[in-house]
Specification:
By secondary structure, the protein is an alpha+beta fold. Among the domains are: about 70 residues, Alpha-Beta Complex (Type Iii Antifreeze Protein Isoform Hplc 12), CATH 3.90.1210.10; about 120 residues, no CATH class. It contains 3 helices and 10 strands; from the N terminus they run H-E-E-E-E-E-E-H-E-E-H-E-E. Strands 3, 4, 5, 6, 7 and 8 form a 6-stranded antiparallel β-sheet that branches. Strands 1-2 form a two-stranded antiparallel ribbon. Strand 9 and strand 10 form a beta hairpin. The longest helix is centred in the N-terminal third of the chain and has 32 residues. The protein starts with a helix and ends in a 6-residue tail after the last strand.
Length: about 280
């Protein structure tokens, strides 16, 4: 093999090696440039129920690749969440966001869970009124009242029932503001409903005057429908009334029909009347 051919092959190998190095370097740079940024945020170390206060033992950090959730609390602000009340259940490994925590200094329990401008109105119920213990925090109910309207104690309509409030959220049942581990409810004596100040006045007045019933509704059904009240008398509106004995009907006497006959006698004309058969002439 002559020297010229060897020189050409050597130059080709060198060029190929240099190209390989350059391409590898470019690929590595592009890969490094596309690596997403990891953001450390504060997360729940274990499940935390509504009403509890966060401590250093139940929070941790979590690396989020890419964009962090809106309102997520960064690692540098971890100390700011300690001592704040939880107003919505937190789950293990879930990033903690501001909207699920009460304002600093407001503490825990039921009060921080009440939105600004709303009120928690307690309604005393029994096992039947409380929908047999199936009313749990977070559910939606309608409030029905039953009684006799003022000034109508002697009315013939009987007891009346009306829908007082619709689509009202249950804030707490008894002393519990969360469900148990199995999601079951238990009979309670007091239910706290989340209402406006005006609704709180109405509900407070109704509690002292009439009987209250809570009616469960689908949480997705938020429509407030016009509902007409009803009364005891309407329960029997479709029943059959007692039959009254029929009175004997007396046939009316009909006057006999008369027949008129015209008689022509030359230029004279006269009329003769005759009674119908069975009648008098």
């Amino acid at each position: 093999m002559n020297r010229r051919l060897l020189t050409i092959l050597l130059v080709a190998f060198v060029i190929a090696g240099v190209c390989t190095l350059l391409i590898g370097h470019l690929v590595r740079n592009q890969s490094a440039g596309k690596q997403p940024v990891t953001t450390l945020v504060v997360a729940a170390k274990a499940d935390v129920k509504l009403g509890n206060i966060l401590t250093a033992d139940n929070i941790t950090t979590l690396g989020i690749t890419g964009t962090a959730p809106k309102e997520a609390i960064l690692e540098k602000d971890m100390k700011s969440v300690i001592g704040r009340g939880v107003i919505a259940d937190l789950y293990e490994g879930e990033p903690i966001i501001e909207s699920r925590l009460a304002a600093p200094g407001s503490g825990g329990g039921l009060a921080p869970a009440i939105p600004i401008g709303m009120r928690a109105c307690a309604v005393r119920v029994d096992e039947v009124v409380g929908v047999s213990g199936f009313v749990t925090p977070g559910m939606r109910v309608d409030v029905l009242i039953s009684g006799t309207p003022p000034g109508q104690q002697n009315n013939t309509q009987g007891t009346e029932s009306r829908t007082l409030l619709q689509n009202i959220q249950v804030l707490s049942a008894g002393t519990d503001i969360t469900k148990d581990k199995e999601g079951k409810a238990k009979p309670v004596q007091v239910v706290n409903l989340l209402v406006t100040p005006e609704q709180a006045e109405t509900l407070s007045l109704a509690s002292n005057q009439v009987t209250i019933r809570l009616v469960l509704r689908n949480p997705l059904d938020t429509k407030v429908a016009p509902v007409a009240g009803t009364a005891t008398v309407n329960l029997f509106a479709g029943s059959t009334a007692p039959t009254q004995p029929k009175r004997a009907t007396v046939a009316k006497r009909v006057a006999p029909q008369a027949f008129v006959v015209e008689v022509f006698n030359g230029s004279k004309q006269s009329q003769e009347k005759f009674a119908s058969p069975g009648g008098r002439q």
